[in-house]
TrEMBL record:
Molecular functions (GO terms): acid-amino acid ligase activity
Organism: Gordonia jinhuaensis
InterPro entries: Mur_ligase_C_dom_sf
Record-given protein name: Uncharacterized protein
Length: 215
């Protein structure tokens, strides 16, 4: 395991991957709190990059043509999903998450963005990226060393993949469970850092292109 000088510990970007389709709105709320707590005293910015997530207690969206009764049920569920995403945007602002990017062209993405704006985000603190490509472009332009990013929602997977192949960014990807278990705070406390290489074998033997080192 190679030694990384303390002055280099803020050069990388840490991304917490919560893109699994089982991650719901309640989980995102908890992860945001852990992200902000873990970021204290580090100096980097916090980001929420989020596509639609399931909402606890609300049926998943249906693409099928159904009866009027089923349509009414879906309309109620759609409203509930929008309200839940609006609430996440508002909570992100109250928690002082620095940047919120809503990914998608649907109602839930617009609700997430609107919630952040209505709660007080202004300028480029909140953005609506209708496609994964536009979200990736925004991130590659604005991410900086020391930033901490929570990626939530299955729709962010293409963004994660694109960032992982971007040669100009030094990224360390961690599973979201590291935040839930408290291990994420350990990582954010600079006990472990990662530097993205060009996909070659890292010095510590990791074949995924990530080099780790203890401080």
């Amino acid at each position: 395991m190679s030694e990384i000088p303390p002055q280099d510990t803020h050069d990388h970007i840490t991304v917490f991957d919560a893109s699994d389709p089982s991650v719901d709105d309640a989980t995102v709320r908890a992860l945001m709190r852990e992200l902000v707590v873990g970021a204290r005293g580090r100096g980097g910015r916090t980001w929420l990059v989020m596509a639609q997530v399931p909402v606890d207690g609300v049926p998943a969206a249906s693409d099928s043509t159904a009866s009027d009764a089923d349509t009414d049920t879906e309309r109620v569920a759609e409203n509930a999903r929008a309200l839940a995403h609006d609430a996440i945007g508002r909570q992100a602002v109250r928690l002082a998450v620095d940047k919120v990017i809503a990914v998608g062209a649907g109602r839930t993405a617009r609700a997430l963005h609107q919630g952040a704006v209505m709660e007080g985000s202004w300028g480029d603190e909140a953005a609506l990226a209708e496609t994964a490509e536009s979200a990736t472009a925004l991130l590659t332009d604005q991410l900086d060393g020391g930033d901490l990013v929570l990626m939530a929602g299955e729709g962010t997977r293409p963004v994660l993949e694109a960032l992982g192949h971007h040669g100009g960014l030094r990224i360390r990807t961690r599973p979201a469970r590291d935040l839930e278990s408290g291990d994420g705070v350990h990582v954010l406390g600079t006990q472990t850092v990662g530097i993205q290489t060009d996909g070659a074998q890292a010095d510590d033997g990791h074949a995924d292109g990530t080099q780790t080192g203890a401080i």
